[in-house]
Amino acid sequence: SKEEVLRLRKAHLNPAIFHHFKKPVMIVDGKMQYLFDETGRRYLDAFAGIVTVSVGHCHPEVNKAVIEQTQRLQHTTTIYLNDQVAEYAKELTDKLPGDLKVAYFVNSGSEANDMAMMMARLYTGAHDIVTLRNAYHGLSEATMGLLGQHTWKYPVPQGFGVHHALNPNPYRGVFGNDGPAYARDMEDLIKAATPGRVAGFIHETIQGVGGAVPLADGYLPAAYKLIRDAGGVCIADEVQTGFGRTGSAYWGFQNQGVIPDIVTMAKGIGNGLPLGAVVTTPEIAAVLAQRLHFNTFGGNPVSMAAGRAVLRVIDQEQLQGNCAQAGGYLLDRLRQLQERHDIIGDVRGKGLMVGVELVKDRQTKEPAVQETATVFERCKDLGLLLGKGGLHGNAFRIKPPMCWTKDDVNFAVAVLDQALSEL
Ligand code: PMP
């Protein structure tokens, strides 16, 4: 029973593991964009297991691939030849532009970013890394140093040589939507806080945990030039934004017309199976050639089979196009809602990667934290499971399975409308 699960969890799970809702929800089944609790009640999933169940819960084709591979071979590590890892490396890197053709497989986003940072430092011989305020790149010791959000930080030493540049947030940032202006400030930061040479710059292309915050127009081309002039490499964290979620591009960085030197991925890449990847150029990958580096579960055949099935399903079901369509419709509907609810300060995002920020006053933009929590909880009671986050805790995050339909959008907007009206 739910009570027994709560009791066991309290007694035996580390208390760091938190509940998404004040009144916890128990989920026992999932089917595509829907989740079901222990009573059989259906919810529309707007958060996809934190942007991870990309093609849908228990998608039949992913399930089939995983089950078939599980029955053949589950694990040996990469010390033997196996078809799955080699073929997936080819299929995955075929999706990337330029010289981004060499993959290393890990199990999570934190691991991928740890490795990307290590590669950048080995390749450049420099140490300093630039990241952004409001960033989230993981919670390993190294990636916690990249965090730009107090909520997730522990008071222990971390982040040596990491520098947080201004966040090019079009809604709240000091230079509005002027991307190059933020890059000019980053130039000052590099001069002020580093020896003038850096190892690299790591960034999300839409800040995910930070509340689906896009980067100001023209930011990445200017920032990339600056970083490369300072001897560094550019690392795009596509853990949330990759695989077509933004609708207008397969990779988030393509929305600003840049090509990174290293791309990290996790979450949606495996539709829920533990899988992450670091993809880079042969030249940068070569820094590990003379070393032993090893990851026990990285490249395991079951996760590889899931990853391959996800790539196929995204293409076959044209899920990138669906993200553009359903996401565009969602943004339109949310902007209509904004006209009727003064509390909605900002509606933003791309494709099915959308943020809604609630404010007490549109002029001062004072975060409406309590109201956000109330609406969040009420939407759940009405059958919609949202995400929540942002630096100020006042943003809804709508990042559903990529198969959301127009009807799902209509339902979600109607629920939000009702919950906001009840405030
Ligand atoms: N990068 C981004 C952009 C993320 O959103 C996350 C997880 N929220 C991570 C990295 C870390 O991934 P993981 O939790 O798999 O370590």
From TrEMBL:
Q: Does the keyword Signal apply?
A: no
* Superkingdom field: Eukaryota
Tell me the GO molecular function terms.
alanine-glyoxylate transaminase activity; pyridoxal phosphate binding
Q: Which cofactor does it need?
A: pyridoxal 5'-phosphate
GO cellular component annotations of the record? mitochondrion
Which UniProt keywords are present, listed alphabetically?
Aminotransferase, Membrane, Mitochondrion, Pyridoxal phosphate, Transferase, Transit peptide, Transmembrane, Transmembrane helix
Q: Where does it reside?
A: Mitochondrion
Q: Please state the Enzyme Commission number of this protein.
A: 2.6.1.44
Q: Which Gene Ontology terms describe the biological processes this protein takes part in?
A: glyoxylate catabolic process; L-alanine catabolic process, by transamination
Q: Which family does it belong to?
A: Belongs to the class-III pyridoxal-phosphate-dependent aminotransferase family.
State the oligomer form and interacting partners.
Answer: Homotetramer.
Please identify the protein, giving its name as recorded.
alanine--glyoxylate transaminase
Parent-protein start and end of this portion? 240 to 662 of 662
